[in-house]
Amino acid sequence: MSSRSPSRVESSILQQRDPAWAREYEAILKAYEQAGGRPDILRTPRVASAVISGNQVLAVNAIDGVEIEAEEQENGVRARIVVAPGTKLEHPVHLCFGMIPSEGLQEIVSEFEIGEGAEVGFLAHCTFPNALDLKHVMDARIHVGPGATMRYSEAHYHGAEGGIEVLPTTHAQIDEGGRLESDFSLVHGRVGRLDIQTEVDVAARGTVELVAKAYGSADDEIHVSEVVRLNGEGARGLTKTRAAVRDRATSQIYTTAEGNAPGSVGHMDCTEVVRGEAMARNVPIVVVRDDRARVTHEAAIGSVSQKELETLMARGLDEEDAVDIIIRGMLA
Amino acid sequence: MDDSVLLRVEDVWLRRPGAEVLRGVDLTVRRGEVHALLGLNGSGKTSLALTLMGAGGYIPEKGRIIFDGRDITQLSVTERARLGLTLAWQQPARFEGLPTADYLALGMSNPSRERVEEALTAVALSPLVYMSRTVNSALSGGERKRIELAAVYAMQPRLAILDEPDSGVDVLCINDVIGLIRRMADEGTSVLLITHRDEMAEAAGVASLICGGAVVNTGTPAEVRKYFAQRCRPHGDLLGSQPWGAEAGGTYERVVSEGGVR
Question: What b/e readout covers A65-85, taking b as 16+ CB neighbours within 10 angstroms?
Fold first, then answer.
């Protein structure tokens, strides 16, 4: 394990006793819990974790096989996580990103290197409970080595005001036989403006699954752009997008799947629910460069099913509650 | 009004696009009664069930529905449910991401794990296996049907309309359905049991027969079963699903005139 973060808390007893650090740490953990995280996990020594608030690295816990470097920058943090070849983690690596102030900028530049044959999960919670004029930018580069598996789950909580822009960009390379499963969720509180940009290149027999879920209201804007290039023989890719918008919110989902090699199989699956004056758009693009590849897509945009609605109403729920249960189920 | 009456359907007419599917339905269900409604496919059974529940597109053009002395003809589905009326759909909806236990608890006035477990057990499903399973398309038709019946049972409604509870791909055996209906009745729920299988009427104390969008016969289950088996089934076998009248090109008259039906 190595770390060159000047803010590595486990190595700095003095810092842990600093009242300012303690206040910030407790505040971000409280927000982390609001976003669905479990603060006790972050204090468990055998679980790898990192806690980042604004541009401060409040805590890092690296374990055998998982190296975490985190360095503070002017407006955020640069992090590098390396999982050694063959490492198989019993517990996912827990990551907490967020900002307590209502205004500001947080830029997270991250690099994930998953060694050959490793199997690792990441559970990230991003929390901005007081956001009024905030921007959160993430730029991630992911390399999944041969035969390795990476599962990355990210849940967001943005508070009730919607004054936030969240701009995650990801470039991933999956080597032969590797697997990447990514699950992004923003279904509690307001969205603000969300713009997800993801590009994945998949080598032979590699697999990628990208799942994105968001629930927009008021004047929230949801924009998802995903490109999956199935470059190797037998590569597989799935994009699954679930979005619900109400009031005047908008949801625009653009997905591209390229079947560039023999036996590559891609599928894009998009469901969007629209209520009130909201607007939803789905644009799937299919590109096939090999006649033995197969790429498909399915999309459904509309209101909730009348039969589902009436079934729940027949149990005594009013229409608004029934709609909410149906949408939250779809986004679960 | 007779205090023993829970539901009274008075001369209900319903038009759906292209057809008059209910033509003056009169029906009475008394408190504590299990009432079987028999009828061939297309006779108007499901249309009547959806009309009683107040589903969209099923508001009568004429007639009244009286529930516990109150005219509910114009009430919403929610309002009817809150008065104690519910429906187990013939082909229940699927819900992505909604666990079975939560689905069952939705309709319960005092949700409890015990009641959810009891309801699943009542439809021969293991609570251990099914409580966390999602009510989605991964369930078989039979599993979904059982969960729908369990949800209605868990709710303890005053009147449960069960639309073809025995139909489905992986069907509950008739004895299971009959057992569930008896449990509902024991808890004080009246049941309107809609079916095209006359043997199901055994679970009832009273039976009615619907044909061509109107109730044409009410009596003991034995009487109505006999009438249904002897007079209706042969028509169904020969003519297929209703309607058979002018709206279907006079199928009935044509076949009768050719001597095919007596």
Answer: bbbbbbbbeeebbbbbbbbbe
The verdict on A330 touching B (C-beta cutoff 8 Å) is yes
Q: Which of B56, B54, B60 is nearest to B82 (CA)?
A: B54
Residue in B closest to A331 by C-alpha:
B97
Distance separating alpha carbons of residues A102 and A82, to the nearest angstrom: 32
CA–CA separation, B65 and A78 (whole Å): 68
Edge-to-edge strands of the sheet including B19-30? B19-30, B5-16, B62-67, B70-71
- Interatomic CA distance for residues B118 and B149, integer angstroms: 12
Q: pLDDT per residue over B52-98, tens digit each?
A: 999 999 999 999 999 999 999 999 999 999 999 999 999 999 999 99
- Is residue B253 very low, low, confident or very high in pLDDT (cuts 50, 70, 90)? low
Contacts of B96 in chain A (CB under 8 A): 329-330, 332
User: Which amino acid is residue B198, in one-letter code?
Assistant: D
* 8 Å CB contact of A313 and B78: yes
Cβ-count burial B47-70 (b if 16+ within 10 Å, e if not): bbbbbbbbbeebebeebebbbbee
Least CB–CB distance from A329: residue in B55, B76, B96 = B96
Q: How far is B141 from chain A (nearest CA, A)?
A: 16
Distance of CA B233 to the CA centre of its chain: 19
- Interface probe, candidates A269, A308, A313, chain B, greatest B C-beta count within 10 A: A313
Residue A140's alpha-carbon distances to A121, A143, A169, A317, in angstroms, are: 16, 10, 6, 43
Full-model pTM:
0.79
- Of the candidates A251, A178, A253, which has an alpha carbon nearest to the alpha carbon of residue A211? A253
Q: What is the ipTM of this complex?
A: 0.90
Cα atoms found within 13 Å of the Cα of residue B128, Cβ hemisphere only: 0
- In chain A, the N- to C-terminal Cα span, in Å, equals 36
Query: To the nearest whole angstrom, how far is the Cα of A317 from the nearest Cα of chain B?
Result: 6
Burial class of A225 by CB neighbour count within 10 A (0 to 12, 13 to 18, 19+): middle
Q: For residues A218 and B29, give the distance between their C-alpha atoms in angstroms, rounded to a whole number.
A: 47
Chain A contact for B17 (CB, 8 A cutoff): no
Residue A280, helix vs strand vs coil: strand
DSSP state of A5: -
Q: B151 contacts in A (CB within 8 Å)?
A: 315
**Cβ-proximal residues to A291 (8 Å cutoff; 6+ apart), any chain:** none
- Tell me which residue in A305, A308, A313 faces B77 most closely, judged by beta carbons: A313
Q: Which of residues 260-319 of A touch B (CB under 8 A)?
A: 305-308, 310-319
Q: How far apart, in whole angstroms, are the C-alpha atoms of residue A315 and residue B106?
A: 7
By DSSP bridging, strand A250-259 and strand A49-53 are unpaired
Residue B33 distance to chain A (closest CA, Å): 21
